[in-house]
Amino acid sequence: MNAPLRTLASPYAKRLARERGVSLALVAGSGPNGRIVAGDVPLTPVAVPAPVAAEAPAPAVVPAPAAAPAVAVAPARSISAFAATIELAPLAEFIAASGSELTIDAFLIRAAARTAGAHGAAIRWMKAEGGAVTIPRAVALAPTEIARLIGTEGEAAPASDAAMVVSRLAVKGVRPVAGGLPAGVTLRILVVAGDDAATAEALIVHDADAIAEDEAAGIITRFRDLIETPLRLLV
């Protein structure tokens, strides 16, 4: 083992260091060969210099993520619907008595235009085989003229976003309970009835922000009453 390093100091300096509580290891000697003499011993203990703390690194600057571009979200519409059961026997008897080969579709369109008022200024008839035809002022047209227009291959008039949508599903045993509204459309009537059905199930779907519920309920009620009393459709 290595011998401990001895500090050169005079006996008197050592005694003073003991009395004053001074560590000679911290005292620089002024005597020969660095020997510590009495005059080198300070009156008070020598403070041990504190180690210099390493400077903490500056925190890394993380750039804030770029804000995502704002996406415009269309406000949700409040959609409401009402259903009604319609007796078709009176209409079927009326068509048979007239001797025409009309289906109930032309009468559905005329009834919708009559009952919807300004909302039915134009009727957008959705064909069962696909496609659609827009009929302006259907309220002023006879059922035979309406039948001719809905039988055309193209549009009877340019499509209108504001047109009321009317359609019929020729199926049996189905009761509509809900339906959607195309963009820009505020009113729709869907009728479910086979060609020889005795009754029909009708559903009116409307934008409740544009058409009040009591107004929509009145439209489907008048629609049902007109179909069940077809003579009134000719007035």
From TrEMBL:
GO terms for molecular function: acyltransferase activity. InterPro entries: E3-bd_dom_sf, PSBD. It comes from the Bacteria. Belongs to the 2-oxoacid dehydrogenase family. SUPFAM superfamilies: Peripheral subunit-binding domain of 2-oxo acid dehydrogenase complex. It comes from Kaistia nematophila. Residues 8-45 form the Peripheral subunit-binding (PSBD) domain. This is E3 binding domain-containing protein. Pfam families: E3_binding (PF02817).
